[in-house]
Specification:
This protein is an all-alpha fold. About 85% of the residues lie in helices and about 0% in strands. It is built from 9 helices and no strands.
Length: about 200
């Protein structure tokens, strides 16, 4: 593997950094976009029961808000439940923007890395080709073996860039779809909760 990276030239190092970043972001998003950390099953019903019995104090509310995105939004609903429905929904929309931002964290970076990786690879290839042909012009008589070796070495960066970009783009689209699904789930649960507490 080390020989492969060295053979690709200096542009292999930023490409290697891109691959590490993609893996790191993917693992981080896989962890934080778990359903149990965003919209836990049964949480809405539990909070409705606690709220009906007036058993939610400030400390409990803070703990619920920290456990999941849904908990954060439902506690916000309880906080503003005495407002007219239009004003309540407006306040919750503001809170939902914070949740959306946290769910989409690092996705732009993931998309950017997946986009620039093949470009970095192509840049490495172009510079490698220039180097290979420049070397030929400096010696008398073209050496086909040297030319073939130079071109082969130059193409390694393009191959590596594409190898990084393809899974990066797939992961980016997957996480975008997952965030959309989670946001819809949150909206449904919050609307149901507002119907219960703001009659």
């Amino acid at each position: 593997m080390t020989e492969f990276i060295i053979a690709g030239g200096p542009f292999m190092w930023p490409l290697l950094a891109c691959s590490i970043l993609i893996i790191t972001i993917a693992v981080e998003r896989l962890w934080f976009l778990q359903i149990r950390l965003v919209t836990p099953n049964g949480l809405t019903n539990q909070i409705v029961n606690l709220n009906n019995k007036n058993l939610i104090n400030n400390q409990q509310a803070d703990e619920i808000a920290e456990l999941s995105s849904l908990g954060f939004l439902l506690v916000s609903c309880i906080k503003y439940k005495d407002l007219p429905r239009e004003n309540l929904e407006s306040k919750i929309e503001e809170k939902a923007i914070e949740v959306k931002y946290s769910l989409e964290r690092n996705l732009n970076m993931l998309g950017t890395i997946a986009t620039i990786s093949p470009l970095l690879g192509l840049l490495g290839t172009v510079i490698g080709m220039i180097t290979a042909f420049t070397g030929l012009s400096e010696v008398t008589g073209a050496n086909p073996d040297a030319l073939a070796a130079g071109i082969s070495q130059a193409l390694i960066t393009t191959a590596f860039g594409l190898f990084i970009a393809v899974p990066g783009l797939v992961l980016h689209k997957y996480f975008e779809q997952k965030v959309s699904f989670l946001l819809i789930s949150l909206q449904v649960e919050v609307s149901r909760f507002i119907d219960v507490i703001n009659k």
